Automatic annotation (TrEMBL), chain B:
<dbReference type="InterPro" id="IPR050075">
    <property type="entry name" value="LeuD"/>
</dbReference>
<dbReference type="GO" id="GO:0009098">
    <property type="term" value="P:L-leucine biosynthetic process"/>
</dbReference>
<keyword id="KW-0432">Leucine biosynthesis</keyword>
<comment type="function">
    <text>Catalyzes the isomerization between 2-isopropylmalate and 3-isopropylmalate, via the formation of 2-isopropylmaleate.</text>
</comment>
<keyword id="KW-0028">Amino-acid biosynthesis</keyword>
<keyword id="KW-0100">Branched-chain amino acid biosynthesis</keyword>
<dbReference type="Pfam" id="PF00694">
    <property type="entry name" value="Aconitase_C"/>
</dbReference>
<keyword id="KW-0456">Lyase</keyword>
<dbReference type="InterPro" id="IPR000573">
    <property type="entry name" value="AconitaseA/IPMdHydase_ssu_swvl"/>
</dbReference>
<dbReference type="GO" id="GO:0009316">
    <property type="term" value="C:3-isopropylmalate dehydratase complex"/>
</dbReference>
<feature type="domain" description="Aconitase A/isopropylmalate dehydratase small subunit swivel">
    <location>
        <begin position="3"/>
        <end position="124"/>
    </location>
</feature>
<comment type="similarity">
    <text>Belongs to the LeuD family. LeuD type 1 subfamily.</text>
</comment>
<dbReference type="InterPro" id="IPR004431">
    <property type="entry name" value="3-IsopropMal_deHydase_ssu"/>
</dbReference>
<comment type="pathway">
    <text>Amino-acid biosynthesis; L-leucine biosynthesis; L-leucine from 3-methyl-2-oxobutanoate: step 2/4.</text>
</comment>
<dbReference type="InterPro" id="IPR015928">
    <property type="entry name" value="Aconitase/3IPM_dehydase_swvl"/>
</dbReference>
<comment type="subunit">
    <text>Heterodimer of LeuC and LeuD.</text>
</comment>
<dbReference type="GO" id="GO:0003861">
    <property type="term" value="F:3-isopropylmalate dehydratase activity"/>
</dbReference>
Length: 467, 213
């Protein structure tokens, strides 16, 4: 008999009922609400005459609709209404809220791991597609829609079809100047944005094992950009060391029991996956996207693709439209493309290690006069730690704006948008048409590459940045 | 949720891959409005309108006879990206009731069923065949999508069989009384039993969140 995958083990432990035809009723261990979907969800449970079944397993924080300006000035009227709705809704339901200015507030996918809410083997959901991020801890985590959110609040369960499984081996050693973000962008470019559709992905291999936890969270964050709702990485000693002592992580006798269970989670040696992919990471360069889909990506020292090279008709049409939207010429190097905005933040890359890596590039240098550059820490706690290390001072003296934690320019609420026709290098995860504002042109990259673009005033190779 | 049984209606060709939910509905529109029904005018905003706010004549759903389309003939990975259920509300708000595509974003696919919109997976070649039979000049643009028989009928009468997850199909055929929540509420005993057993096996899931701050 073949062994079980980590995915299957976690799935099995959460089955409340087998509904037949590969559909299951699953128990939800952790549910995180944000300001955009939380207030409406709580309200709709009330409207149906129901109650929140397990408020103690539910947590909330504002991130999407609040401004990242000092004092949150600039939060739109609707944003304020949503924040008030989240406050009153969580208060009346007895749900723990991490409010503005408190440790615990931040982007939902940054605070889950940071607070120890996200645990290996736990099933965590949130009304946001990047919930796959939490898989970096060894959790099974995925984004849900509004109706599903109401279902979870009212029943602490969810009806889900069981996906197929795919394992992606990332093997070898990353070159200097190359980050987890570059690897996952390269992978999306190789497998395509639909490549993971219908699968739960497990990332494995020596490159994953040698990554720190924050890098693993970045890799899992972009799983949805592969089309996979779930991305996960087996927990190991690094995971345990990361979690130990965190506010909601098990402690004392529970810690011992939990770690013993967590050690049973990795896929069995003889486990079978529906699909396996292997990528050698040794030659992967820093990557940057050129189009309006994360799969339209290239090594930073590469050439913008020539349409004549693209054989697939659909892909060619998409590429032509993307180049037009992005205002780029085929066949030209992407390096040297002038940049107007740089955004360092989002649930892909706003953790402490990301800010350190960007600060290293920014230290002692100046942001080009033609560029506006923002750093938006992922959470209140990241912000405080970064300030304690003096990273804010490094950014400020280089000419970056240091802002309050939240989603900010990743989704362009509160007027935190890139103006139409302007070009931004962003550490977020989506370069869709209009994502950072109507007509905005987004290039996805790592924090180091984004910082290099801010300094150079154009897309640049962080490995070759002069003084 | 309204039931979906069968539909014969104008079908619009929209064979672009990787149409994401940001393109279907901008997040700003979701923040600004409360009623699901109000989103129709903002559906496909970036494609539908020119920068000056006027209609983009090149966009298929702005053209006759496709303005009144209820079926969309779409490309692969349709509805990828953000989990926003507003994408489904917006499409329904502009009158769309079924989407035929080679594949779907998984969260979008689930969201469709929750609202009475039918996502149909058909091979790309079948969708291309259906599109090749559309004759907008003679008004031959009607496609039948029959959930009862799990059959799509092209304007020229060709038939294509499709599959829908059985539980989802039942729920759509019946409408509201078969939505997930109503059914799950009847399983409260099983949920309570699962939690009681789970508390023994994984006590930290329940106990470690009881920290006082
Ligand atoms: S940072 Fe961006 S991608 Fe992440 S949760 Fe916020 S809006 Fe979504």
């Amino acid at each position: 008999m073949p062994g079980r995958t980590m995915f299957q083990k976690i799935w099995d432990d959460h089955v409340v009922a087998d509904l037949g035809d590969n559909v299951f009723l699953l128990h939800i261990d952790r549910h995180i609400l944000h300001d955009l979907g939380g207030p409406g969800g709580i309200l709709s449970v009330k409207q149906r005459g129901l109650r929140i079944r397990n408020p103690e397993l539910t947590f909330a924080t504002p991130d999407h609709a609040i401004s990242s300006a000092r004092g949150r000035a600039g939060t739109s009227e609707v944003g304020i209404r949503l924040l008030e709705g989240l406050r009153s809704g969580t208060r009346s339901a007895g749900i723990r809220l991490f409010d503005v200015g408190e440790v615990g507030q931040g982007i939902v996918h940054v605070i889950g791991p940071e607070l120890g809410l996200t645990l290996p083997g736990a099933l965590l959901v949130c009304g946001d597609s990047h919930t796959c991020t939490h898989g970096g801890i060894g959790a099974m985590a995925f984004g849900i829609g509004t109706t599903e959110l109401t279902h979870v609040l009212a029943t602490q369960t969810l009806v889900q079809p069981r996906p197929k499984t795919m394992r992606i081996h990332l093997e070898g050693e990353m070159a200097v100047g190359v980050t987890a973000k570059d690897l996952i962008l390269h992978l999306i470019g190789t497998v395509g944005v639909g490549g993971g559709s219908g699968y739960a992905v497990e990332y494995a291999g020596s490159a994953i094992r040698s990554m720190g936890i924050e890098e693993r969270l970045t890799v899992c964050n972009l799983s949805i950009e592969l089309g996979a709702k779930i991305g996960m990485i087996a927990p190991d000693e690094k995971t345990f060391a990361y979690l130990k002592g965190r506010k909601f992580a098990p402690a004392g006798e529970l810690w011992g029991r939990a770690t013993a269970y967590w050690r049973t989670l990795p896929s069995d040696v003889n486990a079978e996956f529906d699909r396996e992919v292997e990528i050698q990471v040794g030659n992967v360069a820093p990557h940057v996207t050129w189009g309006t889909s994360p799969e339209q990506v290239l090594p930073v020292d590469g050439l913008i693709p020539d349409m004549a090279d693209v054989t697939d008709v659909g892909k060619r049409e998409a590429a032509v439209a993307a180049l037009k939207y992005m205002g780029l010429q085929p066949g030209k190097p992407i390096i040297g493309t002038p940049v107007d905005w740089v955004f360092i933040g989002s649930c892909a890359n706003s953790r402490l290690s990301d800010l350190r890596s960007a600060a290293e590039v920014a230290r002692g240098r100046k942001v080009a006069s033609s560029v506006r550059a923002w750093v938006v820490p992922g959470s209140e706690s990241v912000k405080r730690q970064a300030e304690a290390e003096g990273l804010d001072a490094v950014f400020r003296s280089a000419g970056f704006e240091w802002r309050e934690p939240g989603c900010s320019m990743c989704l362009a609420a509160n007027g935190e948008t890139v103006p139409a026709g302007q070009r931004s290098v962003s550490t977020s995860n989506r370069n869709f048409v209009g994502r950072q504002g109507p007509g905005a042109r987004t290039h996805l990259a790592s924090p180091a590459t984004a910082a290099a673009a801010a300094i150079a005033g154009h897309i640049a190779d962080v490995r070759k940045l002069g003084n | 949720m309204k039931p979906f049984i069968a539909l014969s209606a104008t079908a619009a060709p929209f064979l672009h891959d990787n149409i994401d939910t940001d393109v279907i509905i901008r997040v700003e529109r979701l923040v600004g409005l409360t009623g699901h029904g109000d989103l129709g005018p903002w559906c496909f905003e970036a494609l539908r309108y020119l920068p000056d706010g006027s209609e983009n004549p090149d966009f298929i759903l702005n053209q006759e006879p496709y303005r009144k389309s209820e079926v969309l003939l779409a490309g692969a990975n349709f509805g990828c990206g953000s989990s926003r259920e507003g994408a489904v509300w917006a499409m329904m708000g502009m009158g769309l009731k079924a989407v035929l595509a080679p594949s779907f974003g998984q969260i979008f696919y689930n969201n469709c069923f929750q609202n009475g919109m039918l996502p149909v997976v058909l091979p790309r070649t079948s969708i291309e065949e259906i599109i090749s039979e559309l004759r907008p000049d003679t008004g031959m643009t009607s496609v039948t999508v029959d959930l009862e028989r799990q059959l799509v009928v092209s304007p020229g009468g060709r038939e294509y069989v499709f599959e829908t997850p059985p539980l989802r199909r039942q729920a759509l055929l019946k409408g509201l009384e078969a939505d997930d929540l109503s059914l799950t509420l009847k399983r409260e005993a099983a949920i309570a039993a699962h939690q009681a057993h789970d508390r023994q096996r994984r006590p930290w899931i329940y106990e470690s969140v009881e920290v006082q701050s």
